[in-house]
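Q: what does this look like with adenosine monophosphate bound?
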Amino acid sequence: MELLHNIEEVRNRVRSWKKDGFSVGLVPTMGYLHEGHQSLIKKAVEENDKVVVSIFVNPMQFGENEDLETYPRDINKDSKLCDETGADLIFNPEPEEMYKEGFCSYVDMNGLTTELCGKSRPIHFRGVMTVVTKLFNIVTPDRAYFGMKDAQQLCVIKRIVKDLNMDIDVIGCPIIREEDGLAKSSRNTYLNKEERKAALILYKTISLGKDLLVSGERDVNTIINKMKDNINKEPLAKIDYVEAVDLETVEKIDVIKGKVLIAMAVYIGKTRLIDNFTFEC
Ligand code: AMP
């Protein structure tokens, strides 16, 4: 497995693969890899001849008071995981390589980014869309893999690929959880022992929401209020949002109908965690 930092080197490697008729899968990440990322890499290895994992903590998607500086990084451990999982290449650029002097072009969207994380992180998705488009242009993959953990991000990427006619299959992969149900996340490392325990409230609330739906509840207000009440019972938790949206349009809904995404962002102490589930009826 190769570790490259330079855009031109990645382009040359992919060009030579394509000349030999190989298909290429891309797994975009911010590193500090765990089994959630690994599940994406595994799927990419199964479905493509060559797999590129990008590891880039993208400054453009972090707000001013967010955790860009403290975001965990460990390229040696990440390289080992990628190698063992069967990836062929890690692309690990410096911010200066991705955003050269004078950079002023962005990818943006009107819909899909107004609710959920788009509300509390106003510049986040512009940063995500811009960097993912750049990665798509650099790696030119046949397929790209994203986790349902970031469900809104997956919807947004599927939409730009459709709207801008990108010839790439976007593949969504299920949320991988710890044994006790907490969704795996690089940010879980911020949690102390007490907070780690308190963080379980997200999964417990996801389970509560699912139970309500399975028992036939279809009124969004009832479901969301019960979920919020449950989170508020945990003293270390502070709700950013709990919302039900249409899975395609990411617009708020009043009644559960069709494909629905119920998503939440909750602060546990200073750490902002996200989780979600989908339901179809
Ligand atoms: P990140 O490094 O957090 O930007 O995540 C990179 C990719 O891995 C995104 O597509 C995430 O949705 C996905 N991912 C992160 N955590 C998980 C998880 N627990 N299960 C599945 N996919 C995940």
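The chain is about 40% helix and 20% strand. The chain has two domains: 2-173, 186-274.
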